[in-house]
Specification:
By secondary structure, this protein is an alpha+beta fold. 50% of the residues lie in helices and 23% in strands. The protein has six helices and 15 strands. A six-stranded antiparallel beta barrel has the order 3-10-14-12-11-15. The protein has a four-stranded antiparallel β-sheet with strand order 7-6-4-9, with no helix packed on it. Strands 1-2 form a two-stranded antiparallel sheet. The protein starts with a helix and ends with a strand.
């Protein structure tokens, strides 16, 4: 084999300097100087051939090592993949076993227990000053739950009561009529007018007789015509005085009648109306103050309380909720093709997993469709139809101890 330039330079440098080289095969030091001066080229060629053979052997050994290490890595990788596959198979087997043993069969229908939940709220806006119950307490209908205080409503109530008193007194005054003193004064005025009329009548009578005598004397020629005219004028004046006195009497009697009758009917009606308005205002504020103490509307368990003591609440905001756990039911979602097995009034057998798969009997009391949003669409173009989902509710035939809202119920 031919030598490359680097080998030649190396050999020349080594030969010139006279340093020894190490024989890797025989582990002996050999002098670079040619021991055979007659054929130096042959000796050098033999050395180079031995070096090439050693390099080839070394290359083969490194390739075998690499191949061996590659096989070891492949074996480890295969072992790791096998272990992972075994682990996945174990997990899948456990999942399948759990599904088969824990999940209800395809013929089972799962429902959820529920009960009536009542939100307790009031018309009074104010501050929560006291809570008489806590979450989890069982309360009875009519029991006090909380107290709400409103200083604004209290002030409004005081003002309404005062307005009611004012209106009541005003109406009493109008109904009673004119004061007694005014009526007596009007009666005296009537008496005076009548007395004046009597005097005028008497004066008229005197002037009439005087006129008649004067007229007779005038006819006899005893008195002059002027005297007769003066007597006639006096008679006319007396007659007019009688008319004036009569009018005064009528006016005085009208004043007395008005004083005795009091106010007009319209005034009385208006006064009564003002009193009724004041009373209605008082009742309105009292209706608000009725919710100062919130009362339990039914028996049940306090499931939640929203505000804390000291917080402000607005009118109608819920204060707490009461769950009527004495009236429990279970709601099932059932496709319509299975409704034939769940008619109204039928008793069904169920299991309650939360109570150790306790078996119980319930009676169907409600069946109603869940609307278009709960429609199962057909997957085939022909030979199938869209199926609706119905909500079926059933109530326990007899009370179930420890049965709570939210528990799952399995219908076989």
């Amino acid at each position: 084999m031919g030598k490359n330039n680097d080998d030649k330079k190396h050999e020349e440098g080594t030969k010139t300097e006279g340093f020894p080289t190490f024989n890797e095969k025989n582990e002996v030091a050999a002098d670079v100087k040619n021991p055979n001066p007659d054929n130096p080229t042959k000796e050098i060629t033999n050395v180079e051939a031995k070096k090439d053979e050693k390099a080839e052997t070394k290359k083969l050994t490194e390739q075998e090592e690499k191949a061996k290490r590659r096989k070891i890595r492949q074996a480890k990788r295969l072992a790791l993949i096998g272990s992972m596959l075994i682990l996945v198979a174990i997990v899948a087997s456990m999942a399948i076993w759990g599904i088969m043993h824990l999940r209800p069969s395809d013929k089972s229908i799962q429902g959820q227990a529920d009960c009536e939940v009542v939100r307790v709220s009031g018309k009074l806006a104010g501050r929560v000053v006291e809570l008489y119950v806590k979450v989890g307490d069982y309360v009875h209908k009519g029991q006090r739950l909380a107290k709400i205080y409103s200083s604004t409503t209290d002030a409004t109530y005081s003002k309404a009561k005062e307005m009611k008193n004012v209106a009541a007194n005003q109406n009493l005054k109008v109904e009673r009529g004119t004061r007694y003193e005014i009526i007596e004064s009007a009666r005296k005025m009537v008496d005076q007018a009548k007395s004046a009329r009597q005097q005028a009548i008497a004066a008229e009578e005197i002037t009439r007789k005087t006129y008649e005598r004067t007229n007779n004397l005038y006819k006899e020629g005893v008195v002059s015509e002027q005297k007769r005219d003066e007597a006639k004028a006096a008679l006319d004046a007396a007659t007019a005085a009688v008319g004036t006195a009569t009018a005064a009497v009528q006016a005085a009697e009208a004043q007395l009648q008005m004083a005795q009758n009091g106010a007009q009917a319209e005034d009385k009606a208006a006064s009564r109306g003002m009193e009724n308005v004041a009373q209605a205002t008082v009742r309105e504020v009292e209706a608000l103050l009725e919710d100062e103490y919130l009362i339990a509307p039914c028996d049940g368990e306090v499931s939640s309380i929203y505000p804390h003591v000291g917080e402000l609440v607005i009118m109608g905001s819920p204060i707490m909720t009461i769950s009527n756990i004495d009236d429990m039911w279970v709601a099932f979602s059932v496709r319509e093709e299975k409704l034939n097995d769940l008619p109204m009034g039928k008793e069904i057998d169920v299991e309650i997993p939360a109570l150790g798969n306790k078996k119980a009997k319930m009676r169907v009391f409600y069946v109603h469709d869940m609307g278009s949003y709960a429609t199962w669409s057909a997957t085939k173009a022909y030979g199938d139809y869209d199926s609706k989902t119905f909500e079926v509710k059933a109530r326990p035939v007899s009370p179930i101890p420890n049965f709570r809202p939210g528990m799952s119920v399995i219908l076989k």
